[in-house]
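pipeline: protein-struct stage 2 | run 1193 | histidine kinase
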Amino acid sequence: MANGGADGAMNALGGSAFRRILGIADALPMPLALIDQNQRYLFCNQALADFLEKPRSMILGRRIGEVLDPAAYEIRKPLIAAALAGEKQWFASEYDHPSRGTLAIQTQYLPQIEVDGTVSGIVILVSDVTEQRVAERSIRESEARFRRIANNAPVIMWVTRLDGHREFVNDAYLNFVGISRERVNDHEWRDFIHPDDFDEVVRQSVAGEASRQPFALEARYQRADGVYRWLRSVSSPRFGPDGELVGFIGAAFDITLAKEGELELRRQVDERTAEVRESEARLRAIFDSVREVVVLLEPDGTVLQLNRTQASWRDKRADEAIGKKLWEAPTLAAYPEHKEAVSGAITVAARGTPVTHDIILERPGAATAYLDVSFRPVFGRDGSVMYILFEARDVTELKAAQEQLRQSQKMEALGQLTGGIAHDFNNLLTVVVGGLDLIVRRAEDPKLERYARNALEAAERGARLTAQLLAFSRVQRLEVRPTLVGPLIANMRPLLRNVLGPGIEKKIELDDAAIPVLADPTQLELAVLNLAINARDAMPEGGHLSITTSAIAISDDHELEPGDYIELSIADTGSGMPPDVAARAFEPFFTTKDVGKGTGLGLSMVYGVARQSGGTARIESQPGEGTTVRLYFRRVDGAEAGPAAGIAAEEAEADVLEQGARVLVVDDDPDVRGFVVASLEDLGYQVTEAADGETALKEFRREAPDLVVLDYIMPGMSGADVARAMRGERPEQAILFVSGYSETDAIRHAAPGATLLPKPFRSEALAASVRKVLSGD
């Protein structure tokens, strides 16, 4: 149906014009789609496919309800129905995106009305307004904070336009004038000026506004109760985005007491002095409780005052900084490389321009600290810079979290790449292993047979390498089940003793609590063995190796879901690694060993096993201080841990079951398909083959095979699509999947009960799997 809609549009517009439109639609960043009256997707651009994280082949021709999450579709169903009836619809909601988290989206449903008035379909436009929503909320919160601060201030405040219209006044202003907020623009401020002060105030106001600079006025103004009060007002111009003058911001202070005589002034000063001391004490308490380091400077950089906030990077003699230049104070004096940057920033701030910097404090024997610092000018009444406020915020933990997230994202990308490479290599190895296996079986020349067997062993070693790649990319099939880590490690003691030798002292401390975790016991043993061997190689002169387990709770980790975990730690006292090497240690094929002494896949396999089990792996290392690798496994509540069920390979020859059974082989790789067909024909099966899903369905309906050997990853119709279609017609159809991945969960969903044979495989394994499926075991 999707092709029909596209063909119709192409006929109407002309092929090249339609392709240009499709190209434009794909270039648009906004997701859009076209659906017909049956709610089937006739078209969607690449942006929509990316948003839904589905290939277009999984969208086009399908109904909306088949593509969207059922809950999301139920919400949108009435809107779609209304749009199909000819009414434009608009819908805003929060959408839980599978990988981008909660998004704010706006969706428009635009009916496509034909000449005869009928609705042929709907154009769907999706807009991501998350950033806009966050920005609007931030602006509203900022405005609300400003209003709360202004309304609680004992100072009269206002904001006006050039024409005198008041855009904002605070409560103190309204109380003084004695009007409601609704009538704030119904009065003339000049009417409140004392007659003796009127002319001078108006003259200074006109001159001040014309200067486009901050200006101050002092005069008597009549309060709402009829009493005149002395006010000192300060007005500052405000400018638009292009530098144009758009109005003024003002604040007025009641200075009546200062004008009423010397004696009254002295009395008031004495009273206020005590209040100021108390206020200063409160301010100092608040000042010292601020998490940031705050320093008040003269414009030349001399330290006037500072808070006493503790910080790991701050010198304990902080008070000795008072009276010194900031760069000569005890803390920064230890980092002379920053003197030029700090003094330069102070010079710029003294001219009235705020300055922000990122500073890294590094020196031997001290932890590296990352600081976000700012130099902000504090203006006096005359507009000049009286002070500079220096603030330093420690962002070390934030930097570490960002770096950890970047490393995690890099590892995810490497996992996807290596998984794809391993899949393709497994296809190649299937052909190589299969071909060599057939040569071994049919070779009459003993020398040729020996050559083929040697090559076959080498190819199978290659298969083991791809298995390690798949472990890193987390698509390797694991027998994940509840496992007790402590007993598993305890059982490995003899093996570890033999591997490490007598020159390495071993310390194993295992948590006594029998807490089961999700893990594959065999792969976990291999991971521990890999780490022990790496530790041994890092300690050629001997050393200490410790293996510990402990129960921990994790609540805020970008890689791990909140919950209870078991931490398995393997630490050595070896040579260690510099930070750049440790950052790449889990990457596949990265190794510091000499050529021929390591594949570089050991640590990547460890990382993949931990991640595929629902945990992760972390590495800590410093040159000369050894290396610690920590593995995290998710705790399983209420599960009983026991030995793995295991799958034993059946090597014994068995009677050929279902001799002459009809088998349909479906694989897009002609060499793999040829090997499977030849092997099955040698076993006496009646074999037909297909290179793609559509051909497979035709052969399926024509032949009604007893068994379908089906590749899982194919272009066009995937193996899952083919299996669903076959099971839809014959629910009991026997299916054997073959794949370079181990998509066990996906296979169970696509074809319940189907068996998976991982690539590469030999003809014996193929024969055993076919017999097992046909016999119903």
